[in-house]
């Protein structure tokens, strides 16, 4: 990798974990450290990806086959990497992404029960060696997350799932964190914002000064 290569940071979490507000905060920390940052999301981040997002999250295809869902996630990701993530990193920009492939292991793997090996095959195909440099996992008990998320409007196709699905998602995320301790930092997202952001400060300080 050349000296100019940017860093790739992803943020993950279950429903109601406070991803949006904390993403804004993380972005401000990266910018304050003087790094140009591209802020993007999955599924989405490109015109094609955003259309695929509508197919995945909308209600026009509620009975979508699990494999179709998995492949659409990776189709959007392939476009996102080719058009957006890789070029930005190669320009020396940092990339801050709202969800990435850990979400596929958690939602399609843990939630839907698709095989990890199958996801790993697609990951290798679509990403080659590209992996995030740092992942912040906003973790909190499912009941708390669902009650926080419940106050929002119209649920999307995933938000309509039952608590047992989100429990499997959470467990899959925590297994990923255990398997990749150098990359994934678990942030306890249950307490108030100040305490959550203090944990983010610590994780980002270590990373920004590393
Ligand atoms: P959100 O980013 O606004 O939370 O919505 C994206 C939804 O898509 C969320 O419910 C998680 C889901 N998702 C997957 O199921 N697999 C994936 O690979 C990604 C990136 C997201």
TrEMBL record:
ATP binds at residues 13-20. Residues 11-200 form the Thymidylate kinase-like domain. GO terms for biological process: dTDP biosynthetic process; dTTP biosynthetic process; dUDP biosynthetic process. It comes from the Bacteria. Signal peptide: none annotated. One of its GO terms (molecular function) is dTMP kinase activity. It catalyses: dTMP + ATP = dTDP + ADP. Its EC number is 2.7.4.9. Gene3D superfamilies: P-loop containing nucleotide triphosphate hydrolases (3.40.50.300). GO terms for cellular component: cytosol. Phosphorylation of dTMP to form dTDP in both de novo and salvage pathways of dTTP synthesis. This is Thymidylate kinase.
């Amino acid at each position: 990798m050349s000296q100019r290569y940017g860093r790739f940071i992803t943020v993950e979490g279950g429903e109601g974990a406070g991803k949006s507000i904390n993403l804004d905060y993380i972005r401000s920390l990266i910018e304050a450290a003087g790094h140009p940052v591209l802020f993007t999301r999955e599924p989405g981040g490109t015109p094609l990806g955003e259309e695929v997002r509508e197919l995945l999250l909308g209600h026009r295809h509620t009975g979508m086959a699990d494999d179709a869902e998995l492949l659409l996630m990776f189709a959007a990701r392939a476009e996102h990497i080719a058009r957006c993530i890789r070029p930005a990193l190669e320009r020396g920009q940092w990339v801050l992404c709202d969800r990435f492939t850990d979400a596929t292991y958690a939602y399609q793997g843990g939630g839907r029960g698709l095989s990890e090996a199958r996801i790993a095959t697609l990951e290798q195909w679509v990403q080659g060696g590209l992996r995030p440099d740092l992942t912040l996992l906003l973790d909190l008990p499912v009941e708390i997350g669902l009650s926080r998320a419940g106050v929002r409007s119209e649920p999307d196709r995933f938000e309509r799932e039952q608590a047992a699905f989100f429990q499997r998602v959470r467990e899959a995320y925590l297994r990923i964190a255990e398997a990749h301790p150098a990359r994934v930092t678990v942030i306890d997202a249950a307490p108030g914002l100040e305490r959550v952001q203090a944990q983010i400060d610590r994780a980002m300080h270590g990373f920004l000064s590393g």
